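Structure, all two chains, one model.
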Amino acid sequence: MENIRNQIKIFFLRILNIPFAFLMHAIDLIMWPIQKIVGVRNMPYIFLLPNLIFFGLFVIVPLIANFFFSLSSGDELLFAERELPTTKQYDQLFDCESYLNPNTCTEDFFWRGVYNTLFFVVFQVGLMIFFSVLTAVILNKKIIGRGFFRSVFFFPVLLSPVVVGLIWQWILLKNGAFNAIIESYGGDKVSFLTDPSWAMASVIFVSIWAHMGFYTLIVLAGLQAIPPNLYEAAEMDGTSRERIFFRITLPLLMPNLLVVFILASIKGVQTFDEIYVLTGGGPGTSTSLIVQYIFTTGFASSGSVQNFGLAAAASMVLGVVLLFLTLMQLYFSRNKESKHQEI
Amino acid sequence: MMNVKFIFKALSVALVSLSLTLISAVSFAATDVRIMWYGDGDKENVPIAAQIDEFNAANSDINVILDIVPYDAIMNTLPIQLAAGEGPDIARVTDLGGLNKYYADITPYVADPSYYEKSFGPFLNWYRKSGDTTSIHGFHSTMTVTGPYVNKTLFEQAGVDLLGPGATWEEWAAASIEVAEKTGTPIPMAWDRSGHRVSGPAISMGAKYFDSNGDPKLVDDGLKAMTQMLYDWHQAGTMSKDLWGSVAGSKYHAPNDWWNAAEVVFMMSGSWQIGRFANEVGDDFDWWAVPAPCGPAACTGMPGGNALLAFNANPAVGKVMDFLSSKEQLSSFIGQVLAIPGHLDLQVDYQTDDPNAKHALNTFAGAVPTIDQVAFDLQAHVDNRIMFNAIISRLGQAIVGEMTMEEAWDRMDEDVEKQLKEKYGG
């Protein structure tokens, strides 16, 4: 009986196999001559080719085009109609009497973007790491509803930045939910998004809220990788909680915190969409970051000259910053790997 | 052998039939005409969609596709599409001179070119390139005039009389503040955040916008006077920083939400708001359009409007333009959207019983003859947007304290100079 059942099973499996076998033979018909021409050793490149073509078409070609745009001028889009080559755009970007005062720069919007980005990244990343560690430490403890809270903290990460911007706009507007609460307790309305002294703080807060869950997860993974016997030994020695945290937890978390720091910095430098929805870069230019400058200069000039060259030059500068951060990340992650191997 | 011959014959017949079918299908296929349209909500989108349906039903050889897009797409996406050699056949645009290098001359394809000259004459030059006096690129869909509205109910509640023609900006500001104080209204004055809106009042204060050669020269005493006044109003709380300060750069922002909630006494906007106010304000309060306040040089608003302009010239585009620009279709459209016609000889039966809307239509139509020549020249200038954007972005920065007014004025001139250099070289 068992034998018959197996025979039937094999029969059906063979029938199911027919289309796959047919497909494999069909692929074989194509691949075999190619393998003959390029040789077995080079076949991996053939398999990678479709992805490489897409990568080249949508990443490498635009990157090269961007570089050439940055060395051209004019308001035309097609290269044939643009003045090329010229360093005019870079000269314009870096033409400043004092780099510390954007008002003395020809492209003052760019430099305001640079300083706003710098301010944003320093405070957003710093506070994000602090709150991520705090949240991860709490979520690593045996608290009631731990799974639920882990989901709650991660949930904002799943939201689209535009949705995040809109939600917080409704909450933080002068006639928004938060001000309604303040008013109901007899307080005065606060212009969270339209007062320059509040706007950047509001934007940093929203950005931390939106992205903290992801970094908390990384820190949590780091916490769970710390051997429990270290804590047991420390407890047996009567070490205080603070000392355990600063002498065991934090040092062993450092590799994870480094990853968090670099990833958050890269993400921070690239920030655009949620701020654009939340404040539009205002009031004035107080929350306008570099990416918004690039977007406005190249694509959203509302009838002014769409300066593709200047936008491309600014994005090349941004690219250099991001390249530096990425190389840092690669260096430190490789360093970490080699240390692990040594251990 | 017979069978093989038969099969070949049958195949030949089949191939010929298939080819004929394909050829006839291609030759009788309707020509697509794509229109990129932004509208002020259903108020404008529903009437135009009905007109397109009517056209398609009457012209089986042409298939008009109406793409309704946000205004931002017209301002920011359309120029990029056109620069890349793409874009629609026709679009409804407001940057009338700024895109003129892309307009197609449809003169050979319209039934009666003289109809366009007679009906839209003064506006056709707004679309033409410098030196061109004959091309036809399209027609004015609606004409607009900038000007203020007041919440008449609040004025009545406060016991303050509405000011008449000849009242100055300072007098209107004082009256609005008085009404706001007496009625507890939070915002005495609110303006659309737009350089175009600032320009009419600036011309009233004496701004010239051009030098003696006709080249753009933005900052002069007139512009300084008006922008300083706007700055002062923001610092004094006559205007709320929450509107102009809520975005960056030259981004347009209108105070409609506050106006609809009766939180504004005086709103500087324009005639295109009439239909929207009629729908959104309804019976909540009485709103009146008032004559453009005066400065030492004039009492003017800015003319403007939107036009349907062609980016491809062919018989189908010409036919669509003829249909939409016809007196019958334009009259019906203008009557429904409650706008001022751009057609010089059009009887419009406005489809509204709203006395506020009727009064506003009369006020704005009556304002057209009082528009200053500088305002017309500015509106017709190909680079006017560069000047409008420079005003609003730098004034916005000064208002929130990022620079002084002196610095803002210097920057306005530099911005214009820089952009013109980028555009024309040098």
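Chain A has two domains: 2-81, 112-342.
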